[in-house]
């Protein structure tokens, strides 16, 4: 029985594709982008997050932790010793306020599809569907294939958000059951890509070429991080790369934000880009103009959705 490891299911999403969608977050990613807004999705292993503000000092975690990793200190504040934790999830199961939460649950295809299909009426009336995101959905190709087939069988539109770092030969069968793809290109300079994401970009670029040849509708996206990849040169080179790709007609720029910063604290990890500020709308629209100098003559379009409008 195939299972997939999922760390979140978000209902009624309007920011992960066309229409109203259910976003399913796959656990595990081959990149480690320093700006990642979902750090709980990077590791494939289940992880506990601790939010002390939600703790009511009921002591249930201490009573049920088999290793002593979860306890309260002398002042009644929650303590979590991560080096002793086996991520069994007992503390999270019994926490009435979700001060402790287990990120990463295994689903069968039937279990996950049941959750997705609950929203079929929203899909039908809005032109929406399911978006498999993460983490990185392509890192679990067998499960992605099985759940995508199930969705196709019942008429559920399937989108994925990917950084393209998977093994093409393993995930290629999934492409027959995916309606459209959001493909992130972080940086065109491979050394800079390695510095900021932990991996070089050659495989990612080749995967984009091959996916484009398959014929799936693709929107390429770049998260614009000031001082890292927001130069005119990088945006222009990205536009030049996608120019000959027939399946890519649109290129979207996404503004850096800090909505996920608190998640690092809950995971007990540092956020290393604290000093970086969000780009201005003026800068974003300037970069759109830079990209369109390359794309527009070929009938392609770069855009920036200031209001997250997915009618583009």
Multimeric organization: single chain
Shape: globular
Structural class estimated from helices and strands: alpha/beta
Task: Name the average pLDDT.
Answer: 95
In N-to-C order, the SSE pattern is EEEHEEHEEHHEHEHEHHEHEHHE
The level 1 CATH classification of the largest domain is Alpha Beta
Number of helices: 11
Major sheet details: 9 strands, mixed
What value does the Rg take, in angstroms? 21 Å
In summary, what is this structure?
The protein has 312 residues and is an alpha/beta fold. The chain contains 11 helices and 13 strands.
What can you see in these coordinates?
The structure is a single chain. This protein has two domains: about 5-45 and about 105-305, Aldolase class I (TIM Barrel); about 45-100, Alpha-Beta Plaits (2-Layer Sandwich). The mean pLDDT is about 95. The chain has a nine-stranded mixed β-sheet with strand order 7-1-2-8-9-10-11-12-13. Strands 3-6 form a two-stranded antiparallel sheet. The chain has about 300 residues and is of the alpha/beta class. Helix 9 (about 230-240) runs parallel beside helix 11 (about 280-295). Helices cover about 30% and strands about 25% of the residues.
């Amino acid at each position: 029985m195939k299972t997939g490891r999922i760390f979140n299911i978000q209902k009624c999403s309007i920011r992960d594709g066309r229409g109203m969608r259910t976003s399913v977050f796959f656990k595990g990613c081959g990149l480690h982008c320093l700006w990642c807004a979902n750090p709980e999705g990077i590791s494939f292993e289940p992880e506990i997050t601790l939010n002390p503000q939600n703790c009511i000092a009921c002591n249930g975690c201490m009573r049920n932790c088999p290793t002593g990793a979860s306890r309260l200190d002398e002042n009644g504040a929650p303590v979590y010793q991560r080096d002793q934790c086996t991520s069994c999830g007992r503390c999270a199961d019994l926490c009435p306020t979700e001060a402790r939460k287990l990120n990463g649950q295994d689903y069968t295809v039937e279990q996950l599809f049941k959750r997705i299909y609950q929203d079929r009426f929203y899909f039908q009336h809005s032109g929406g569907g399911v978006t498999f995101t993460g983490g990185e959905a392509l890192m679990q190709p067998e499960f992605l294939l099985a759940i995508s087939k199930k969705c196709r069988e019942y008429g559920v539109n399937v989108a994925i958000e990917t950084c393209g770092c998977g093994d093409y030969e393993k995930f290629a069968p999934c492409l027959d059951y995916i309606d459209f793809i959001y493909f992130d290109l972080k940086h065109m300079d491979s050394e800079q890509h390695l510095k900021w994401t932990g991996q070089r970009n050659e495989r990612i670029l080749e995967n984009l070429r091959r996916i484009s040849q398959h014929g799936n509708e693709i929107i390429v996206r770049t998260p614009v991080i000031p001082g890292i990849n927001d130069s005119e040169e990088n945006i222009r080179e990205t536009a030049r790369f996608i120019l000959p790709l027939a399946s890519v007609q649109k290129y979207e720029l996404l503004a850096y934000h800090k909505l996920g910063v608190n998640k690092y604290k809950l995971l007990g990890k540092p956020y290393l880009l604290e000093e970086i500020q969000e780009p201005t709308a003026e800068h974003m629209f300037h970069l759109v103009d830079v990209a369109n100098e390359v794309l527009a003559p070929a009938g392609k379009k770069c855009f920036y959705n200031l209001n997250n409008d997915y009618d583009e």
